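fyi for ur records
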Amino acid sequence: FKMGKIIFYEDRNFQGRHYECSSDCTDMHSYFSRCNSVRVESGCWVIYERPNYQGYQYFMSRGEYPDYQHWMGYNDSIRSCRMIPHHRGPYRMRIYERPDFGGKMMEFMDDCPSVYDCFYNHDIYSCNVMDGHWMSYEQPNYRGRQYYMRPGEYRRFSDWGAMNARIGSFRRITDF
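which gave:
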């Protein structure tokens, strides 16, 4: 098991007050009111706009993000973070066209830059992640809102934090 480390800064270019995390954090509000830059020293992370892993989600791998546009952020609000555990082995995920694993199903073991090209549908209403950790994106080619999906059953799109069923692409999290 590899430890992760992520540092959040109040101001751009790693200035101002900062807060260091080496594990999941459900509410960083008491440490600072805004986050304008991030340095990921180790591990992969998902950072969230709101406490308790709610709101906009952003995947962060090792590197420096001098302002929130560098992680495709919509604003300077980051309130919680989750470290993504390292995964060895296969990746498997099933997507479904209806809630509760109904309708047409397709299984994936690799990245998918365009869900519509494979599944002939823009909407995924439920999903079962059997192996590995995945990031889904609202638009094709890994763009738009991001959703972290760890192993488990997602009976409806709200289970992975989405406001609607639109998924344009997804990829395996293998960047360690």
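The two ends are 12 Å apart (CA to CA). thats all i got for now
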